[in-house]
Write a structure and sequence with these properties.
- There is one protein chain.
- With 476 residues, the protein is α/β, with parallel strands linked by helices.
- Among the domains are: 237 residues, Isopropylmalate Dehydrogenase (3-Layer(aba) Sandwich); 39 residues, no CATH class.
- 43% of the residues lie in helices and 13% in strands.
- It has 16 helices and 15 strands.
- The strands form three sheets. The chain has an eleven-stranded mixed sheet with strand order 4-3-5-15-14-6-7-13-10-12-11, with helices on both faces.
- Helix 1 links the parallel strand 3 and strand 4.
- The protein binds NADPH dihydro-nicotinamide-adenine-dinucleotide phosphate, 2-oxoglutaric acid and magnesium ion.
Length: 476
């Protein structure tokens, strides 16, 4: 048993262990929770009420969660002292008990502390941020057909510019770094021409590694393998046309995982065109197939034409038998889209997407945008998953202007709790909550954010009132 400076571990309960990246869950798990800053004061009690009621109803006392209050953010400073935003006790508790849940934590813009939310993901190597965006019937939305969006954003969670390796413009190290880049590093690369970093610039570094990308893509593909029909689909989202060696590499490394480790279960979009063309027109020549997959083929240089022909030949040789004859239609489709395009696609053609596998920053943006389509940040849950720990939290932040007013929507943290119960294998309790939320919304018992979008506008319930409504509607 670990030692704690200011915390007392619950007298009863058992730790969740991890084996091979999977949680082994006892009937009485000790689960650390962080209340959170801002609206955390409203949301957390509402969430705990719903989770406890669901577990009690589903298992009649056979299973229960032993909550272990741990501290981060403003509350931690009150208990541990000034600037103690993320005390060692909290880290020890998450390490010892493996699965935790948290409310949002404040991060100042510009100077001040770095994000505690990001720090927790990095400290525990929670490399996949999983954010499902699906529609609950009756939820008001600015979109005409919000029900068409049913995606899971798989956001890489430990790399990219979120590593926080950056220097302020006035920092002497930054000035020295810019001089070194301008005088030595950039001229040494023949392709960068006369480019110069402007003096007075701040500098941030964007590391994207092959190992970091591939372990994340692997989890996204495994997720898609558990889905059915057209939802067996992973889209690698990137801005690889501009950031070739980070975002472009993310795409290439992602395809590499799909076409090596998951070769028998995956088909890429281009491979599907090649096989599909041949299925539609048996006897189609390599050149005509190449013409169909490559727009503008006839105006390509002979070398480029030969490369497309070679691609068609290679695909037919490698997987013509194993994937051809329509077999590929049962497999996980892996394609890629440029990030700006995916923002419009999830609004204009939402039904075409399923698992959106992204880098860190793109996933941050896309998860808020996708949440907006299906009803806003009040209904946007999330999970940070690693091989030895998992922390569940909503997509949104502290929403400070609503703090302490018992009016914010606790739906996102409650749904993050649903993800936690599913991760623990407690599906019966998770289902009760999902039913309760669906029925509360259908009954127009909703918080201000959803009430104001309803037509006619509905009378809103409080944050705690929504939790009570969810509990009342367990079982439909
Ligand atoms: N994982 C985390 O802990 C995160 C922390 N943050 C941090 O949170 C702080 C505040 O960030 P901010 O940019 O204001 O973004 P927020 O996500 O906190 O809030 C922005 C707006 O989104 C709406 N919203 C957010 N949560 C809910 C909810 N539960 N129910 C209904 N509506 C909701 C509200 O809109 P309206 O007022 O129009 O109703 C709110 O004003 C910052 O310090 C930021 O760094 C941000 C994101 C994630
Ligand atoms: O940590 C923060 O303050 C913001 C993080 C964030 O926006 C997110 O994880 O979605
Ligand atoms: Mg965000």
């Amino acid at each position: 048993m670990a030692t704690y400076e200011k915390l007392t571990v619950p007298a009863s309960g058992t730790a969740i262990r991890f084996e091979g990246g999977q949680p082994i869950v006892p009937n009485d798990p000790i689960i650390p929770f962080i209340r959170g800053d801002g609206t955390g004061v409203d949301i957390w009690p509402a969430t705990q009420r719903v989770l406890d009621a669901a577990v009690a109803k589903a298992y009649g006392g056979e299973r229960r969660i032993e909550w272990f209050k741990v501290y981060a953010g403003d509350e931690a400073c009150e208990l541990y002292g000034t600037y103690q935003y993320l005390p060692q006790d909290t880290l020890t508790a998450i390490e010892e008990f493996g699965v935790a849940i948290k409310g949002p934590l404040t991060t100042p813009i510009g100077g001040g502390i770095r994000s505690l939310n990001v720090a927790l993901r990095q400290i525990f190597d929670l490399y996949c941020c999983v954010r499902p965006c699906r529609y609950y019937d009756g939820t008001p939305s600015p979109h005409k057909r919000p029900q068409d969006l049913d995606v899971v954003v798989y956001r890489e969670n430990t790399e990219d510019i979120y590593m926080g390796i950056e220097w302020e413009a006035s920092d002497p190290v930054c000035i020295e770094l810019i001089a070194h880049l301008n005088d030595t590093v950039i001229p040494a690369n023949g392709k960068l021409g006369k480019r110069r970093i402007p003096e007075g610039a701040g500098i941030g570094i964007k590391p994207v590694s092959k190992a970091g990308t591939q372990r994340h893509v692997r989890k996204a593909i495994r997720h898609a393998l558990g889905l059915e029909g057209a939802k067996r689909h992973v889209t690698l989202v990137h801005k690889g046309n501009i950031m070739k060696f980070t975002e472009g590499a993310f795409r290439d490394w992602g395809y590499e995982v799909a076409t090596t480790e998951f070769r028998d279960q995956c088909i890429t979009e281009r491979e599907s065109w090649i096989l599909g063309n041949l299925e539609e027109k048996p006897g189609l020549s390599i050149e005509d197939n190449a013409r169909l997959i490559e727009p503008g083929y006839d105006s390509l240089t002979p070398e480029k034409k030969a490369a497309v022909d070679a691609e068609v030949t290679a695909v037919l040789d490698a997987i013509g038998t194993s994937h051809g004859g329509g077999q590929w239609k049962q497999m996980v489709m892996v394609d890629d889209r440029i990030a700006d395009s995916i923002f419009q696609q999830i609004q204009t053609r939402p039904q075409e997407y399923s698992v959106l596998c992204t880098l860190n920053l793109n996933g941050d943006y896309i998860s808020d945008a996708a949440a907006a389509v299906v009803g806003g940040l009040g209904m946007a849950p999330g999970a940070n998953i690693g091989d030895n720990a998992a922390i569940f939290e909503a997509t949104h932040g502290t929403a400070p202007k609503h703090a302490g007013l018992d009016r914010i929507n606790p739906g996102s943290v409650i749904l993050s709790g649903v993800m936690m119960l599913e991760y623990m294998g407690w599906q019966e309790a998770a289902d009760l909550i999902t039913q309760g939320i669906s029925a509360a919304i259908a009954n127009k018992e909703v918080t201000y954010d959803l009430a104001r979008l309803m037509e006619p506008r509905a009378e809103s319930v409080s944050c705690s009132g929504f939790a009570e409504a969810v509990v009342r509607h367990f079982g439909g």
